[in-house]
Amino acid sequence: MIQLNNIQKHFQQGPTKAFVLQGINAEVKEGEFVTIMGPSGAGKSTLLSILGMLDSAWTGEFYFLGQTVHKLNPRQRVELNKKYIGFVFQSFHLLDDLTLYENLDVPLSYRDLKKAEREKMVLETLDRFQITNKKNLYPSQLSGGQQQLVAVARAVIANPKLILADEPTGNLHSSQGQEIMELFKKLNGNGTTIIQVTHSETNAAYGNRIIQLRDGRVVN
Predict the structure, then answer these.
(1) Of 50, 135, 156, 214, whose CA is between 20 and 30 Å from 104?
(2) Average per-residue pLDDT in the chain?
């Protein structure tokens, strides 16, 4: 599904280059559940943003589902993202001026679905995450844990081929966090590829492989 060859990202600091990622080579097969781990500042979230096609300021080769991402223009990358990828952000990235219901409908609006079908999927997801009674609330009216649940629900609602999750249980109680990880495990069992960034050994145990990053390099 994913092949990365010599991915590099740096920031210019005067005459010198400060590398965030250096020489990243990695492969993720369809149906895998991969965990990216490493100390703070290792480049984990940056790598996840590149995989999600949210960051285009990098060099190297990136192949996704047979597409040469490094040769695509920004619009083509956005289309790939919308069609195949669900992203759980550490800082939620919910749309503040939309209700919880409308936030969940956004990823479905990119698909070729009838309105009734979209409504059914949103209502089923609200029920699945036990947040039906909050469907008309705005993100600012929700607690951090509730916003995290909505962010996870939004990522999975359109049944993406790939889920990218950046500390997906960081704002949840342990029982809620366990429920989310069990959901990811179930989705993975049904064929969804998952790549998560986490500091949690417990969360990492749900996956089948760990990629260790240190100082912007793969070390395992």
Answers:
(1) 50
(2) 94
